[in-house]
Structures are given as C-alpha cells and as structure tokens.
C-alpha cells in the first residue's frame, strides 16, 4: 500500500513540492527547469530540515564526548552509515567509510590500496568515458609506483568496447576502475560482465557509482566488486559527503589514507597504531551534519522506492533522447542501449557554452563543457557537449521547455 502511494506521489506533480528550490524563479519571472542533476541533485525539504534540526538540537563531535549531545550525534552519524550500507548492499557494516565524496573515495583507494600493492609495470585499466575523478587519482599513484594507466576504448554508439577490454586484460592488470553510468554519455555499463572479466584476470575492481547510486538499485555484495564509491549530493543529500564501500577484510589490509584524530588506537612520538574499521579511514572531525542529511535523503528515496525512481528517470530520459533526436539541428553524442539519467548533444553550428547560456535565459539549467571528461571529448572530436540530466522530479514539460529554448537559440543564431 505504501509502495503504491509512493508511486502515485512519484507520478504526480506533487513530488515537486518536496523540493523548495524547484518553485523559484530565475532571471526575473522564468520558472526554473533544473536539468543539471548529474552535477548535483536538488534537496527535498526533509533533508534541509534534518540538517537544520541537527545543528539546532544536537550538534556535538562524534565518538569522543561523554555527554548527551555527543551520544546523540554519534547515534545519528552511525545510523546514517547503516542506512548507506543497507541501501547499497554493503558486504560488511564496518566496510562503509564516509569520505567527502566519490573523488576522495577513489583517491583513498588509489593511494592506500594502490600505494601498497602496485609495482612498476603493473597496469590499471580505466575507460575513455571516465570522469577525471576516476583518471587523475590513478595517474598520481602510477607516477608514485611506476604502474601504467590504460583505457578501454569506446564503440561508436557510446558503449565500452568489451572485446578490446578482454585484449587489454592480462596478468599485469591489478586494478580495473570503471564507472557504472557515464555522466557524459548516459551509458549504463554492464558492470556485472566487467567485474567477471576483471576477476577472471585476477584484478581488483572499483565501480564508480556516482551516477548509478542516485537512480538505480545497487547491491555491492551481489555485484562482487572490491570497491564501490558514490556521493551523497547526487542522491538528494548534502554536498561534502560520500562513501567508499568495500569488504572489511580488504580494508583491514590497507594502510590509512589520512592521518590524525579519530583514526588512531595508540600514538607515541615515534609511531602510532590504527583504530578499527571504519574509523581507520576517517581521520579528523567528519561531516556529521552531512551524514545526518544523507540519512534523511536515503529514507526519502527508500520511501519513494528505488525501483520506481529508476523507472521514472528511465522514462524521462528516453523521452528526452527521442524528442531531442527528432529536433532539427540537434545531434546526440551517443545512442547507448541503456541510459542512466543523462542525455548529451550538440546544437549544430553553435558552441555548447553559448547554447547553455541562452537556454538559461529561459530558465532552463543544463550543462556545457567537457563535463570533467576531457579524454572522452578527444574521442568525440569536440571540445565540449551540452548535457541535460534528469531526476525523478523532472517532468515532460521540462523537456518541452528545453526544446523550446533550443529553438529560440537556433533562431537567434540564424541556423
Ligand atoms: N564520477 C562520476 C561518474 C561523476 O559523475 C562525478 C561527478 O560528477 C564524479 C565521479 C565526482 O563526484 P564528486 O565531485 O561528488 O566527488
């Protein structure tokens, strides 16, 4: 019954009332059409209220204090960790590490696991569609260790070339780090197949879930990857918090990433020993309010139902892709078999930055640029793209407004 009510709410325009920002105007009297959800999602009132309530009622440091507020803050922080683990199917409760987000999670794995395990000549396999966050950390550790970064090429439709991946895998491959959903092309990668191939080659696997965790059911344990990373702010949660999820046994064997308070057991001037998981990887005062807000976001998403959210976003983005494809002067960057939340395109003869600025004048927020994927831009042969990215609160009308704004832009440019 609750599921049906949530689905009805998801299908109705009422869902938009949960997000205060969606009712605001921009540039005078333009109602906002927010199609930049791959960059960051909007926040429902329940998340904003949870963060505010935390600071109003509870604020204290976690795991240290012996007073009521410290205990409550610790309780809320740890409850959020359990919610993240339950949502994403963490193999072990203590294998959910809070970080600043996907970027920091990948840097943690690259520096800690990579620094300890990579040797000169070892290979790290990424792909041409990766976000810079899943490229640069590997380059940094490769420079430190003498390992080599290689990339799986793409097929013309914007899918990974899995046959080429097979050829690139060898006993030298120690890490395969691939995104589950492309932030630029929208492609949903077959991570089960990728994980199986990487494991058969004896490599560890990291799945970048920045664009999958917001819209798709994820079960890290069932996937069988070694590391899964994501960011709260793309999942209706606050900025500045995310997670690394991994089996406890693997994390136990890894050295700390950052040193400081919270992550130690004993400290002398000469040497230190480490706290148990997950604290070994959480040096310093964490983003407690962020965790509380993320916990509230997960409760909200669970209430709507992740499967229902996936279906909703899928309908929206497929409809947008079909209508953009049918629009004169628009060329889609990719035609993946399965799309996540994003559809990207070019408007023939107009620079993507001009397109984004002009549609913004009509209140339509889309992204322009290399979207943190410069190697992908090189592959596409364009320095930039436009990207419309959807969440479950976007409507068909949002796409209509985007198309109207694109027509206005073409008229202005006389193309
Ligand atoms: N990976 C992918 C696929 C992304 O889309 C993003 C952000 O857009 C990131 C990594 C980096 O996420 P964050 O900036 O939250 O660390």
Please name the defining characteristics of this protein.
single chain; 415 residues; alpha/beta; Aspartate Aminotransferase, domain 1; Aspartate Aminotransferase, domain 2; 2 domains; seven-stranded mixed beta sheet; four-stranded antiparallel beta sheet; 14 helices; 17 strands; 16% strand; binds pyridoxal-5'-phosphate
Architecture overview:
This protein is an alpha/beta fold and 415 residues long. The chain starts with a helix and ends with a helix. The protein has a seven-stranded mixed beta sheet, with helices on both faces. It has helices at 2-11, 45-58, 68-88, 102-117, 136-145, 162-168, 191-200, 220-223, 248-252, 288-304, 306-325, 352-361, 374-380, 396-413, and strands at 25-26, 30-31, 33-34, 96-99, 123-127, 148-152, 173-179, 204-208, 227-231, 242-245, 264-267, 272-274, 330-332, 342-347, 364-365, 367-369, 385-389. The chain has two domains: 2-43 and 305-413, Aspartate Aminotransferase, domain 1; 49-302, Aspartate Aminotransferase, domain 2 (3-Layer(aba) Sandwich). The radius of gyration is 22 Å and the shape is globular. α2 (45-58) runs antiparallel to α10 and α3 (68-88) packs across α10 (288-304). The structure holds pyridoxal-5'-phosphate (PLP).
Number of strands: 17
Mean pLDDT metric = 97
Q: How many domains, in number, for the residues?
A: 2
Which regions have little confidence, pLDDT < 50, spanning 5+ residues?
Answer: none
**What is the percent of helical residues?**
40-55%
- Principal-axis shape: globular
- CATH second-level architecture of the largest domain: 3-Layer(aba) Sandwich
**Ligand names:** pyridoxal-5'-phosphate
Query: What name does CATH use for the topology of the largest domain?
Result: Aspartate Aminotransferase, domain 2
Strand order of the largest sheet: 4-10-9-8-7-5-6
- Main sheet specs: 7 strands, mixed
Distance between the termini: 52 Å
Return Rg in Å: 22 Å
What structural category characterises the helix and strand content?
A: alpha/beta
By CATH reckoning, the class of the largest domain would read: Alpha Beta
Please report which band the strand proportion falls in: under 5%, 5-15%, 15-25%, 25-35%, 35-45% or over 45%: 15-25%
- The CATH homologous superfamily of the largest domain is termed Type I PLP-dependent aspartate aminotransferase-like (Major domain)
Query: Helix segment count?
Result: 14
């Amino acid at each position: 019954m609750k599921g049906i009510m949530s689905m009805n709410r998801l299908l109705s325009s009422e869902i938009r009332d949960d997000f205060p920002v969606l009712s605001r105007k921009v540039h005078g009297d333009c109602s906002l059409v927010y199609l930049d959800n791959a960059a960051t999602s909007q926040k429902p009132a329940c998340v904003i209220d949870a963060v505010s309530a935390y600071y109003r009622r509870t604020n204290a440091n976690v795991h240290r204090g012996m007073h009521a507020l410290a205990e409550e803050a610790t309780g809320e922080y740890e409850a959020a960790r359990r919610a993240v683990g339950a949502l994403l199917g963490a193999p072990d409760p203590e294998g959910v590490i809070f970080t600043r987000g996907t970027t920091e999670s990948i840097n943690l794995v690259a520096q800690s696991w990579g620094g300890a395990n990579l040797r000169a000549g070892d290979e790290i396999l990424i792909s041409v569609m990766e976000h810079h966050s899943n490229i640069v950390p590997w380059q940094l550790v490769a420079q430190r260790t003498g390992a080599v970064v290689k990339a799986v090429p793409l097929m013309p439709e914007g899918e990974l070339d899995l046959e080429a991946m097979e050829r690139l895998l060898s006993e030298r491959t120690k890490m395969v780090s691939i995104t589950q959903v492309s932030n630029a092309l929208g492609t949903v990668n077959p991570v089960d197949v990728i994980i199986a191939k990487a494991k058969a080659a004896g490599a560890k696997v990291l799945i970048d879930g920045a664009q999958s965790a917001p819209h798709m059911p994820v079960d890290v344990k069932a996937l069988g990857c070694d590391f899964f990373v994501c960011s709260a702010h793309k999942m209706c949660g606050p900025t500045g918090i995310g997670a690394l999820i991994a089996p406890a046994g693997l994390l136990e064997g890894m050295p700390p990433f950052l040193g400081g308070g919270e992550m130690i057991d004993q400290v002398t001037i000469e040497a230190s020993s480490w706290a148990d998981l997950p604290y070994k990887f959480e040096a310093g005062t964490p983003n407690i309010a962020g965790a509380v807000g993320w916990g509230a976001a997960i409760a909200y998403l669970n209430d709507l139902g992740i499967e229902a959210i996936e279906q909703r976003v899928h309908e929206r983005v497929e409809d947008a892709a079909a209508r953009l494809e049918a629009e004169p002067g628009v060329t889609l960057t990719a035609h993946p078999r399965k799309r996540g939340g994003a559809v990207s395109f070019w408007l023939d003869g107009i620079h993507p930055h001009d397109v984004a600025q002009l549609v913004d004048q009509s209140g339509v927020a889309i992204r322009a640029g290399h979207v943190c994927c410069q190697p992908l831009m090189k592959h596409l042969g364009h320095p930039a793209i436009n990207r419309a990215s959807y969440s479950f609160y976007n409507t068909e009308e949002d796409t209509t407004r985007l198309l109207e704004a694109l027509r206005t832009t073409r008229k202005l440019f006389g193309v």
